[in-house]
Write a structure and sequence with these properties.
Blueprint lengths: L1 H24 L5 H6 L13 H29 L39
Helix pairs in contact: 1-3
C-alpha cells in the first residue's frame, strides 16, 4: 500500500509541474488583439490555431489526472485499518495516580502573616 501511495504522490507532483508549465506557455484571450495590430508574430510551432487546441486539451487531461490523484490520496490517507479497536488511547497504559500534595496549614488570621522587625 505504501508503494501505491508513493507512486500516486509522484504522479500528482509530475502532473502539477507539467500543468504549471503548460499554463504559463499558453496565451491569454487578449493576446490575439496585440497580434492583430502588428505588435506580435502569429506564427507558432503548431500552426495558427493548433497550439491553442493542443495545449488546452493537454492541460485539461493533466488537470483531470491531478484531481483524480488528489481524491485517491485523500481517500487512502483517511482510510483506517479494519482491525482498529477504536481509539489510540484505549491501548495506552494507565498512569499511576499522583501522590497527594502536602499543603501547609494557613494561619487563622491575617495578622500572623505581617513580618515583625
Amino acid at each position: 500500500m505504501n508503494i501505491f501511495l508513493s507512486i500516486l504522490l509522484a504522479v500528482q507532483m509530475i502532473t502539477a509541474v507539467a500543468m504549471i508549465g503548460l499554463i504559463l506557455v499558453q496565451h491569454g484571450k487578449g493576446a490575439d488583439m496585440g497580434a492583430a495590430f502588428g505588435s506580435g508574430g502569429s506564427g507558432s510551432l503548431f500552426g495558427a490555431s493548433g497550439s491553442a487546441n493542443f495545449l488546452s486539451r493537454t492541460t485539461a487531461v493533466l488537470a483531470t489526472l491531478f484531481f483524480v490523484c488528489t481524491l485517491l490520496l485523500a481517500y487512502f490517507g483517511t482510510a483506517r485499518p479494519t482491525a482498529s479497536t477504536g481509539s489510540v488511547l484505549e491501548g495506552a497504559p494507565l498512569a499511576a495516580p499522583a501522590p497527594a500534595a502536602i499543603v501547609p496549614a494557613l494561619p487563622a488570621s491575617g495578622a500572623a502573616q505581617i513580618p515583625s522587625k
